[in-house]
Design goal:
Pathway: Amino-acid biosynthesis; L-isoleucine biosynthesis; 2-oxobutanoate from pyruvate: step 1/3. By secondary structure, the chain is α/β, with parallel strands linked by helices. The protein has 24 helices and 18 strands. The strands form five sheets. An eight-stranded parallel β-barrel has the order 1-2-3-4-5-6-7-8, surrounded by ten helices. α14 links the parallel β7 and β8. α14 packs across α15 and α18 packs across α19. The structure holds zinc ion. Zinc ion binds next to loops. The site of zinc ion has 4 residues, from loops.
Length: 654
Amino acid sequence: MMRKTSLSVAAAPLGLSILWALSTCHLSADAFALKSRWSTFAPTTLFSQIGLQQQQSTTAATVAKNDSWMTQPLLNPLSQFVKGPKECLVFDTTLRDGTQGESVSASCDDKLKIATRLSSFDVDYIEAGWPGSNPKDAEFFQRAQTELPAEARSKLVAFGSSRRKNVAVEDDPQIQALVDSNVPTICMVVKAHPWQVTEILRATREENLQMIHSSVEYLVKLGKTVLVDLEHFFDGYKVDPEYALACCEAAVDAGASCLVMCDTNGGTMPWEVDQTTRKMLQHFEPFCTIGVHCHNDCGMAVANSITACHAGVGLIQGTINGIGERTGNADLCSIVPSLALHVNTTMACNDQLSELTQVSRYVDEILNRSPNNAAPFVGQSAFAHKGGLHVAAMERNPLSYQHVEPELVGNEMRVLISELSGRQNIMGKLQEIFGNSMDDGQKSARSLAILNRVKELENMGYQFEGADASVHLMMLHTTRGYCPPFQVLDYSAQVYDANMDSASRVVSNLHGGLKSASTARATIKVRTVVDDPETSQLSFVENLQVSDGNGPVDALAKALLKALLPAHPFLDSVELIDYKVRILDPNSATEAVTRVMIEFRDSETDKQWTTVSVDSNVVSASLNALIDGFEYALIEQAQLCMLCDDAFEDEQRQ
Ligand SMILES: [Zn+2]
């Protein structure tokens, strides 16, 4: 039945439109033949799109006017045909497909925060959930109406599937939930693979086409912009291109604005994406925009998305940091800057590109995930250089080992220091810290001494390449006249447990959860440099503080912060985000040397830094790493670095 040509059926009632379409749109003969497939099942034609588009926009305008929550008229980016690689729309699905990733979970509050951030980053669409599938998503769409800014609301997309078999579209509760979500745009997933239709959906091929058509048509008539996610499209196109195209045509004929080719199982190769995309454009240009949605099962999601854009798709779906089911979705943090900086694609978010690293870290932070340091463009190591030869070349020209300037995506270049690094790396770091206040001769002389010190400390178990802040401080501490903003004069930490019952501790933990009965208390005495605003003189104040905590390190961190806050209230925004302890010589059992690395973050500026310390006593290693972390915060964030004269240095040493 599918193969039977019914050109006459398609052509007869709308012969004039067809002629018009052929003469003005240069529609390919393929598309003409294609029409016959869908029209085997329905009397309307693809070419009625031209009339339908007009009717659709009128309906959309009427409905938009009546939509009380929409305070601003919506400028729908899909009202015009969009074609890459010169232009591309960015469709973010972090809050829908992204949250299907393992151990990714977002509360309704989290979703509202992320949607707001994505909107100010200027993505074109924010797919926020499937209102018909769970109450949390339905709650999101309801709260979004009053809690999201107008611009974010206008970009929201609700996700759903085509109507159920044998159920009228208006009676399908899942479709009704899409209508109730009260957002302007719907992304509807439909089956486009014949085997998936008959085996998984248990529908006939014809029934599936009718389900697609009636579902899209219903929502379009209500004024919604409908994008159609063609599930398993690339696989379906391989086994039965005619049927895959008939599914597309059913959607377009019903008024879909965008056909999104999905590589649902992630097994498609870039050249297959290229060929299929070009075929799709031939068939559907300029009736609707073609989009792409890739999964990363072969590590190809970014490559496939960019290939598709290069071949002509005008919309790319993906997630921030590539989160998503199994190995994840296409990572917008790689796609957007690649398109902007290497393909010269125009996207609405091009102007916000320098916020990309911040957006990536913000989403990780809200979703409580550790950032991927090796992530292209936005990872901490994306522009980090360790090889001495590289660093030497970079001194001459920063682009010698970087494909773009890190600042363009809001990241920064880092020179890593380790025993493997050459003196040039240390010279680079000295340049970063002291600029031109130290001449080349001085830098060269000091770099040798510092390199030797690095080698000595790494031999003891330090590891500097992950701890920029400690390298920075080591360089300052070995600089004559450096005055640290505070000093810890003494400290003590105690742990006591009133209910210790070692025999039954596992059982009691099982019953009482993981809450420990032990308490730790730390006392710390700190001498801080303060700037007297009246006399403009620097002086010292001593401050003794006591704090309780979950363990000795927690108690010490709290006591130290309490002692520093009166003089440096800005430290309030500094938080500890990671604490790692590594036993360096496990054979020495409890006397082993431990390395502690602590990661800090300033929630105001989103800057992160790491410190390292090594000691046979884990508490004192932790305290040293804590001190480094706060000292670095004062120097870097508050610009409190003091290189004082000799007299001041003498006073400090007393
Ligand atoms: Zn997906």
